[in-house]
Amino acid sequence: MKNKNLKAIIIENNDKYNKNSISELLAMYDFFPIEYFPQKKEIKIYKKNPGNKLNLIFIRNLEKIKSDCLLSQNFKVNSIDI
After folding, report:
1. pTM of this prediction?
2. Measuring CA to CA, which residue among 32, 34, 26 is closest to residue 2?
3. Average pLDDT by consecutive 10-residue portion of the chain (82 residues)?
């Protein structure tokens, strides 16, 4: 996580008790949770308690990630354009 080239981490958390500790650990490395809407290529900072959600994407550089998403090519997943 110290590598500054690491842009994002997807966390799947099924633990009922230590969800916030993962968020706190990632925050020490400047990662924060987002919501991603692939069909719109839209990214929003996740403002709710991250411990309430099982799966989250954490990123470090919001503007870079937004730019990368907007410039990415569309593709289909199960006949849905993404």
Report:
1. 0.76
2. 26
3. 88 66 88 89 85 81 91 81 66
